[in-house]
Amino acid sequence: MSRLALGRTLERVCKVVLLLCLVHFLIVMILYFDVYSQRFDIFSHFNGGRGANASRGPHHHYYYNYSGGRPNATFASYPPAVEQLPASARPEPGRTRPTPKPVLPCPEVPPGLVGRLLIEFSSQMTMERVQRENPNVTEGGRYTPPDCRPKQKVAIIIPFRHREHHLKYWLHYLHPILRRQKIDYGIYIINQLGDGTFNRAKLLNVGYTEALRDAQYDCFIFSDVDLIPMDDRNLYHCYDQPRHFAIAMDKFGFRLPYAGYFGGVSGLSKKQFLKINGFPNEYWGWGGEDDDIYNRITLNGMKVSRPDVRIGRYRMIKHERDKHNEPNPQRFNKIQNTKNTMRKDGISSLTYRLVSVTTFPLYTNISVEIGKPPPRPIRG
Protein backbone atom coordinates (compact mmCIF):
# COMPACT_ATOMS: atom_id res chain seq x y z
CA MET A 1 0.00 0.00 0.00
CA SER A 2 2.81 2.35 0.76
CA ARG A 3 4.32 1.83 -2.72
CA LEU A 4 0.99 2.53 -4.40
CA ALA A 5 0.53 5.74 -2.42
CA LEU A 6 4.07 6.84 -3.24
CA GLY A 7 3.49 6.19 -6.96
CA ARG A 8 0.34 8.30 -6.98
CA THR A 9 2.12 11.12 -5.17
CA LEU A 10 4.96 11.12 -7.71
CA GLU A 11 2.44 11.11 -10.56
CA ARG A 12 0.72 14.20 -9.13
CA VAL A 13 4.08 15.96 -8.68
CA CYS A 14 5.03 15.22 -12.29
CA LYS A 15 1.72 16.60 -13.54
CA VAL A 16 2.21 19.78 -11.53
CA VAL A 17 5.78 20.17 -12.84
CA LEU A 18 4.60 19.54 -16.40
CA LEU A 19 1.85 22.10 -16.00
CA LEU A 20 4.32 24.61 -14.62
CA CYS A 21 6.65 23.97 -17.55
CA LEU A 22 3.78 24.53 -19.97
CA VAL A 23 2.84 27.77 -18.26
CA HIS A 24 6.46 28.89 -18.33
CA PHE A 25 6.72 28.04 -22.02
CA LEU A 26 3.60 30.07 -22.81
CA ILE A 27 4.87 33.07 -20.85
CA VAL A 28 8.23 32.93 -22.64
CA MET A 29 6.54 32.75 -26.03
CA ILE A 30 4.27 35.71 -25.23
CA LEU A 31 7.22 37.82 -24.11
CA TYR A 32 9.24 36.77 -27.16
CA PHE A 33 6.57 37.78 -29.67
CA ASP A 34 5.94 41.04 -27.85
CA VAL A 35 9.61 42.03 -28.10
CA TYR A 36 9.69 40.79 -31.70
CA SER A 37 6.74 42.98 -32.70
CA GLN A 38 8.25 46.03 -31.01
CA ARG A 39 11.50 45.49 -32.89
CA PHE A 40 9.69 45.47 -36.21
CA ASP A 41 7.72 48.55 -35.22
CA ILE A 42 11.02 50.36 -34.63
CA PHE A 43 12.29 49.29 -38.05
CA SER A 44 9.06 50.49 -39.64
CA HIS A 45 9.81 54.03 -38.41
CA PHE A 46 13.24 53.95 -40.02
CA ASN A 47 11.72 52.67 -43.27
CA GLY A 48 9.13 55.44 -43.48
CA GLY A 49 6.35 53.12 -42.30
CA ARG A 50 7.07 50.43 -44.90
CA GLY A 51 8.02 47.61 -42.49
CA ALA A 52 6.22 44.36 -41.84
CA ASN A 53 3.97 46.07 -39.35
CA ALA A 54 3.09 48.96 -41.66
CA SER A 55 -0.27 47.55 -42.59
CA ARG A 56 -1.42 46.97 -39.07
CA GLY A 57 -3.86 49.46 -37.68
CA PRO A 58 -4.13 53.16 -38.47
CA HIS A 59 -1.01 55.39 -38.51
CA HIS A 60 -1.23 58.99 -37.37
CA HIS A 61 0.96 61.86 -38.67
CA TYR A 62 1.34 65.40 -37.49
CA TYR A 63 -0.37 67.90 -39.81
CA TYR A 64 1.67 71.07 -40.41
CA ASN A 65 -0.26 74.18 -41.26
CA TYR A 66 2.20 76.00 -43.52
CA SER A 67 -0.03 79.06 -43.90
CA GLY A 68 0.63 79.88 -40.29
CA GLY A 69 4.03 78.27 -40.01
CA ARG A 70 3.12 76.30 -36.86
CA PRO A 71 2.31 72.58 -36.36
CA ASN A 72 -1.33 71.99 -35.60
CA ALA A 73 -2.26 70.06 -32.46
CA THR A 74 -4.74 67.87 -34.34
CA PHE A 75 -3.96 64.67 -36.23
CA ALA A 76 -4.80 63.71 -39.78
CA SER A 77 -4.26 60.45 -41.63
CA TYR A 78 -3.67 61.85 -45.15
CA PRO A 79 -0.94 64.55 -45.10
CA PRO A 80 2.63 63.18 -45.28
CA ALA A 81 4.72 62.53 -42.21
CA VAL A 82 7.38 65.07 -41.32
CA GLU A 83 10.15 62.66 -42.24
CA GLN A 84 8.59 62.24 -45.71
CA LEU A 85 8.69 66.01 -46.43
CA PRO A 86 11.50 67.57 -48.49
CA ALA A 87 14.39 68.79 -46.43
CA SER A 88 13.58 72.41 -47.27
CA ALA A 89 10.03 72.00 -45.95
CA ARG A 90 10.88 70.32 -42.63
CA PRO A 91 10.65 72.52 -39.53
CA GLU A 92 13.78 72.65 -37.45
CA PRO A 93 13.56 70.62 -34.23
CA GLY A 94 12.30 72.72 -31.37
CA ARG A 95 11.59 75.72 -33.59
CA THR A 96 8.51 76.97 -35.41
CA ARG A 97 8.59 78.25 -38.98
CA PRO A 98 9.14 82.03 -39.13
CA THR A 99 6.10 84.14 -39.89
CA PRO A 100 6.23 86.20 -43.13
CA LYS A 101 7.59 89.70 -42.73
CA PRO A 102 4.98 92.45 -43.08
CA VAL A 103 5.17 94.54 -46.25
CA LEU A 104 6.45 97.97 -45.30
CA PRO A 105 5.07 101.23 -46.74
CA CYS A 106 6.84 102.49 -49.83
CA PRO A 107 9.43 105.20 -49.04
CA GLU A 108 8.56 108.83 -49.67
CA VAL A 109 11.56 109.09 -51.99
CA PRO A 110 12.15 105.72 -53.71
CA PRO A 111 15.86 104.75 -53.79
CA GLY A 112 15.84 103.68 -57.45
CA LEU A 113 15.23 107.12 -58.98
CA VAL A 114 17.83 108.37 -61.46
CA GLY A 115 16.93 112.08 -61.69
CA ARG A 116 17.35 113.93 -65.02
CA LEU A 117 16.38 111.83 -68.06
CA LEU A 118 17.35 111.96 -71.71
CA ILE A 119 14.11 112.20 -73.68
CA GLU A 120 14.18 111.85 -77.47
CA PHE A 121 11.63 110.95 -80.12
CA SER A 122 13.84 110.06 -83.09
CA SER A 123 14.17 106.31 -82.50
CA GLN A 124 11.61 103.93 -83.95
CA MET A 125 9.00 102.93 -81.38
CA THR A 126 6.53 100.03 -81.45
CA MET A 127 4.05 98.64 -78.94
CA GLU A 128 5.84 95.28 -79.08
CA ARG A 129 9.07 96.91 -77.95
CA VAL A 130 7.35 98.77 -75.12
CA GLN A 131 5.69 95.55 -73.99
CA ARG A 132 9.03 93.71 -73.93
CA GLU A 133 10.52 96.53 -71.87
CA ASN A 134 7.78 96.26 -69.22
CA PRO A 135 7.12 92.58 -68.46
CA ASN A 136 5.85 93.34 -64.94
CA VAL A 137 3.00 95.55 -66.18
CA THR A 138 -0.21 93.52 -66.19
CA GLU A 139 -3.21 93.57 -68.52
CA GLY A 140 -4.86 96.95 -68.76
CA GLY A 141 -1.67 98.85 -67.91
CA ARG A 142 -1.76 97.98 -64.20
CA TYR A 143 1.21 97.74 -61.86
CA THR A 144 1.70 97.31 -58.11
CA PRO A 145 5.14 97.41 -56.44
CA PRO A 146 6.00 93.89 -55.22
CA ASP A 147 8.32 94.97 -52.40
CA CYS A 148 6.42 97.72 -50.57
CA ARG A 149 2.91 99.00 -49.85
CA PRO A 150 1.99 102.26 -51.67
CA LYS A 151 -0.06 104.82 -49.76
CA GLN A 152 -2.22 105.66 -52.79
CA LYS A 153 -3.81 103.92 -55.74
CA VAL A 154 -3.34 106.14 -58.80
CA ALA A 155 -5.39 106.31 -62.01
CA ILE A 156 -3.58 108.02 -64.86
CA ILE A 157 -6.08 109.44 -67.33
CA ILE A 158 -5.22 110.61 -70.87
CA PRO A 159 -7.72 112.39 -73.18
CA PHE A 160 -7.19 110.97 -76.64
CA ARG A 161 -8.03 111.03 -80.32
CA HIS A 162 -5.84 110.01 -83.27
CA ARG A 163 -2.59 110.11 -81.30
CA GLU A 164 -1.33 106.51 -81.63
CA HIS A 165 2.19 107.64 -82.55
CA HIS A 166 2.45 109.80 -79.41
CA LEU A 167 1.01 107.09 -77.20
CA LYS A 168 3.86 104.69 -78.02
CA TYR A 169 6.46 107.16 -76.77
CA TRP A 170 4.39 108.11 -73.74
CA LEU A 171 4.10 104.46 -72.67
CA HIS A 172 7.77 103.83 -73.47
CA TYR A 173 8.92 106.52 -71.05
CA LEU A 174 6.19 106.59 -68.40
CA HIS A 175 5.90 102.91 -67.49
CA PRO A 176 9.56 102.64 -66.31
CA ILE A 177 9.32 106.01 -64.55
CA LEU A 178 6.18 105.02 -62.65
CA ARG A 179 7.64 101.67 -61.65
CA ARG A 180 10.78 103.34 -60.28
CA GLN A 181 8.55 105.72 -58.35
CA LYS A 182 6.85 102.73 -56.64
CA ILE A 183 3.41 103.84 -57.82
CA ASP A 184 0.40 101.52 -57.69
CA TYR A 185 -1.25 102.64 -60.92
CA GLY A 186 -3.50 101.94 -63.89
CA ILE A 187 -3.44 103.78 -67.23
CA TYR A 188 -6.69 104.79 -68.96
CA ILE A 189 -6.87 106.17 -72.49
CA ILE A 190 -10.18 108.03 -72.94
CA ASN A 191 -10.83 107.96 -76.66
CA GLN A 192 -13.33 110.45 -78.11
CA LEU A 193 -15.06 108.79 -81.06
CA GLY A 194 -16.13 110.65 -84.17
CA ASP A 195 -14.85 113.85 -85.71
CA GLY A 196 -16.79 116.31 -83.59
CA THR A 197 -15.21 119.14 -81.64
CA PHE A 198 -12.71 117.86 -79.10
CA ASN A 199 -13.50 118.34 -75.39
CA ARG A 200 -10.49 117.63 -73.20
CA ALA A 201 -12.03 118.42 -69.79
CA LYS A 202 -15.15 116.35 -70.42
CA LEU A 203 -13.01 113.38 -71.40
CA LEU A 204 -11.12 113.75 -68.12
CA ASN A 205 -14.43 113.62 -66.23
CA VAL A 206 -15.27 110.44 -68.15
CA GLY A 207 -11.90 108.98 -67.22
CA TYR A 208 -12.45 109.71 -63.53
CA THR A 209 -15.87 108.03 -63.63
CA GLU A 210 -14.80 104.95 -65.58
CA ALA A 211 -11.59 104.41 -63.61
CA LEU A 212 -13.59 104.25 -60.37
CA ARG A 213 -15.76 101.56 -61.91
CA ASP A 214 -12.62 99.53 -62.49
CA ALA A 215 -10.86 99.93 -59.12
CA GLN A 216 -10.90 101.89 -55.86
CA TYR A 217 -8.58 104.72 -56.86
CA ASP A 218 -7.98 107.62 -54.49
CA CYS A 219 -5.64 109.68 -56.70
CA PHE A 220 -6.05 110.85 -60.30
CA ILE A 221 -3.32 112.13 -62.60
CA PHE A 222 -4.57 113.89 -65.76
CA SER A 223 -1.98 114.00 -68.53
CA ASP A 224 -1.79 115.02 -72.18
CA VAL A 225 -0.37 112.25 -74.33
CA ASP A 226 2.35 114.44 -75.87
CA LEU A 227 4.06 115.47 -72.60
CA ILE A 228 6.98 113.45 -71.18
CA PRO A 229 8.61 114.30 -67.81
CA MET A 230 12.36 114.88 -67.98
CA ASP A 231 13.03 113.94 -64.34
CA ASP A 232 11.70 110.89 -62.49
CA ARG A 233 11.86 112.78 -59.17
CA ASN A 234 8.64 114.46 -60.32
CA LEU A 235 6.56 111.93 -58.38
CA TYR A 236 3.18 111.01 -59.88
CA HIS A 237 1.02 110.82 -56.79
CA CYS A 238 -1.38 113.17 -55.02
CA TYR A 239 -0.46 115.79 -52.44
CA ASP A 240 -2.18 117.78 -49.70
CA GLN A 241 -3.10 120.39 -52.33
CA PRO A 242 -3.97 119.94 -56.03
CA ARG A 243 -0.75 119.33 -57.95
CA HIS A 244 0.49 120.88 -61.17
CA PHE A 245 3.32 118.73 -62.53
CA ALA A 246 4.14 120.22 -65.97
CA ILE A 247 5.38 123.62 -64.85
CA ALA A 248 8.37 123.97 -67.21
CA MET A 249 7.71 122.77 -70.77
CA ASP A 250 10.26 123.11 -73.52
CA LYS A 251 7.75 124.95 -75.73
CA PHE A 252 7.57 127.70 -73.05
CA GLY A 253 11.34 127.87 -72.63
CA PHE A 254 11.12 125.71 -69.48
CA ARG A 255 9.23 128.42 -67.65
CA LEU A 256 5.74 128.73 -66.22
CA PRO A 257 3.86 130.82 -68.82
CA TYR A 258 1.74 132.58 -66.17
CA ALA A 259 0.91 132.18 -62.50
CA GLY A 260 -2.55 130.64 -63.02
CA TYR A 261 -1.44 128.05 -65.57
CA PHE A 262 -2.69 124.53 -64.72
CA GLY A 263 -2.39 122.74 -68.07
CA GLY A 264 -0.55 119.70 -69.39
CA VAL A 265 -0.27 117.36 -66.40
CA SER A 266 -2.08 117.77 -63.09
CA GLY A 267 -3.20 115.65 -60.17
CA LEU A 268 -6.04 115.70 -57.65
CA SER A 269 -7.12 113.33 -54.94
CA LYS A 270 -10.66 112.02 -55.04
CA LYS A 271 -11.64 114.38 -52.24
CA GLN A 272 -10.13 117.38 -54.01
CA PHE A 273 -11.76 116.45 -57.31
CA LEU A 274 -15.22 116.18 -55.79
CA LYS A 275 -14.74 119.41 -53.86
CA ILE A 276 -14.48 121.38 -57.13
CA ASN A 277 -17.25 119.32 -58.81
CA GLY A 278 -14.71 117.86 -61.22
CA PHE A 279 -13.88 119.64 -64.46
CA PRO A 280 -16.13 121.75 -66.72
CA ASN A 281 -17.98 119.97 -69.53
CA GLU A 282 -18.67 122.99 -71.70
CA TYR A 283 -15.22 123.89 -73.04
CA TRP A 284 -15.42 122.66 -76.64
CA GLY A 285 -12.26 123.11 -78.67
CA TRP A 286 -8.80 124.19 -77.60
CA GLY A 287 -8.07 126.27 -74.51
CA GLY A 288 -9.68 127.64 -71.40
CA GLU A 289 -10.54 124.50 -69.43
CA ASP A 290 -7.27 124.45 -67.45
CA ASP A 291 -7.79 128.07 -66.36
CA ASP A 292 -11.33 127.19 -65.30
CA ILE A 293 -9.96 124.32 -63.24
CA TYR A 294 -7.43 126.65 -61.60
CA ASN A 295 -10.28 129.01 -60.71
CA ARG A 296 -12.29 126.16 -59.19
CA ILE A 297 -9.35 125.23 -57.00
CA THR A 298 -8.75 128.72 -55.65
CA LEU A 299 -12.47 129.49 -55.26
CA ASN A 300 -12.79 126.41 -53.02
CA GLY A 301 -10.05 127.55 -50.67
CA MET A 302 -7.24 125.37 -52.01
CA LYS A 303 -3.85 126.24 -53.46
CA VAL A 304 -1.94 124.72 -56.34
CA SER A 305 1.28 122.94 -55.35
CA ARG A 306 4.16 122.55 -57.80
CA PRO A 307 7.55 120.81 -57.90
CA ASP A 308 10.83 122.63 -58.15
CA VAL A 309 11.27 124.15 -61.61
CA ARG A 310 14.38 122.04 -62.14
CA ILE A 311 12.35 118.86 -61.56
CA GLY A 312 9.08 119.83 -63.27
CA ARG A 313 10.59 119.99 -66.78
CA TYR A 314 8.75 118.38 -69.71
CA ARG A 315 9.39 117.71 -73.37
CA MET A 316 6.50 117.94 -75.81
CA ILE A 317 6.22 115.76 -78.91
CA LYS A 318 5.91 118.24 -81.74
CA HIS A 319 2.77 117.99 -83.84
CA GLU A 320 0.28 120.03 -85.79
CA ARG A 321 -2.90 121.09 -84.03
CA ASP A 322 -5.63 118.50 -84.47
CA LYS A 323 -8.55 119.09 -86.75
CA HIS A 324 -11.79 119.88 -84.91
CA ASN A 325 -9.77 121.22 -81.98
CA GLU A 326 -9.68 124.86 -83.00
CA PRO A 327 -9.37 127.58 -80.34
CA ASN A 328 -12.58 128.12 -78.45
CA PRO A 329 -13.69 131.74 -78.99
CA GLN A 330 -15.94 131.61 -75.91
CA ARG A 331 -13.23 130.52 -73.50
CA PHE A 332 -12.45 133.95 -72.07
CA ASN A 333 -16.08 134.68 -71.18
CA LYS A 334 -16.47 131.25 -69.60
CA ILE A 335 -13.33 131.63 -67.48
CA GLN A 336 -14.72 134.83 -65.99
CA ASN A 337 -17.91 133.03 -64.92
CA THR A 338 -16.37 130.02 -63.18
CA LYS A 339 -17.83 131.03 -59.81
CA ASN A 340 -21.36 130.96 -61.24
CA THR A 341 -21.02 127.79 -63.32
CA MET A 342 -18.85 125.38 -61.32
CA ARG A 343 -21.68 124.04 -59.13
CA LYS A 344 -23.92 123.12 -62.06
CA ASP A 345 -21.29 122.26 -64.70
CA GLY A 346 -18.96 119.44 -63.73
CA ILE A 347 -18.86 115.81 -62.66
CA SER A 348 -22.40 116.17 -61.29
CA SER A 349 -23.77 117.04 -64.75
CA LEU A 350 -21.65 114.67 -66.85
CA THR A 351 -23.41 112.77 -69.65
CA TYR A 352 -21.83 110.49 -72.26
CA ARG A 353 -22.32 107.15 -73.99
CA LEU A 354 -19.86 104.38 -73.24
CA VAL A 355 -19.13 102.47 -76.46
CA SER A 356 -16.41 100.03 -75.43
CA VAL A 357 -13.81 99.19 -72.80
CA THR A 358 -10.81 97.24 -74.10
CA THR A 359 -7.82 96.14 -72.06
CA PHE A 360 -4.43 95.97 -73.75
CA PRO A 361 -1.15 94.81 -72.22
CA LEU A 362 -0.01 98.39 -71.55
CA TYR A 363 -3.23 100.37 -71.02
CA THR A 364 -7.02 100.30 -70.90
CA ASN A 365 -8.84 101.96 -73.80
CA ILE A 366 -12.24 103.51 -73.10
CA SER A 367 -14.07 104.73 -76.21
CA VAL A 368 -16.96 107.13 -75.69
CA GLU A 369 -19.32 109.48 -77.45
CA ILE A 370 -19.60 112.79 -75.62
CA GLY A 371 -22.04 114.70 -77.83
CA LYS A 372 -21.67 117.99 -79.62
CA PRO A 373 -21.25 121.61 -78.49
CA PRO A 374 -24.42 123.68 -78.22
CA PRO A 375 -25.10 126.06 -81.12
CA ARG A 376 -23.30 129.35 -80.77
CA PRO A 377 -25.49 132.39 -80.11
CA ILE A 378 -26.14 134.53 -83.18
CA ARG A 379 -24.69 137.96 -82.87
CA GLY A 380 -27.22 140.61 -83.80
Description:
The longest helix is centred in the N-terminal third of the chain and has 45 residues, at 2-46. It is built from eight helices and 13 strands. It starts with a helix and ends in an 11-residue tail after the last strand. With 380 residues, the protein is α/β, with parallel strands linked by helices. α2 packs parallel to α3. A hairpin with a 4-residue loop joins β12 (353-359) and β13 (364-369). The strands form three sheets. Strands 3, 4, 5, 6, 8, 10, 12 and 13 form an eight-stranded mixed β-sheet that branches. A three-stranded mixed β-sheet has the order 7-11-9. A two-stranded antiparallel sheet has the order 1-2. Helix content is 29%, strand content 17%.
Mean pLDDT: 83
Give the count of helical stretches: 8
Estimate the helix proportion, in percent.
25-40%
Briefly note the structural class of the backbone.
Answer: alpha/beta
Q: What general form does the structure show?
A: elongated
How would you characterize the largest beta sheet? 8 strands, mixed
Straight-line distance between termini: 166 Å
Strand-residue fraction? 15-25%
Helix-strand sequence:
HEEHEEHEHEEEEEHHEHHEE
- Number-wise, the strands total 13
Q: Low-confidence segments, ≥5 residues, pLDDT <50?
A: 35-80
Write the layout of secondary structure elements.
Layout: H1 2-46, E1 61-65, E2 70-76, H2 127-133, E3 142-143, E4 153-160, H3 164-180, E5 184-192, H4 200-214, E6 219-223, E7 227-229, E8 243-244, E9 248-249, E10 265-269, H5 270-275, H6 289-299, E11 313-316, H7 331-336, H8 338-341, E12 353-359, E13 364-369
Parallel strand pairs: 4-5, 4-6, 5-13, 9-11
Antiparallel strand pairs: 1-2, 3-5, 6-10, 7-11, 8-10, 12-13
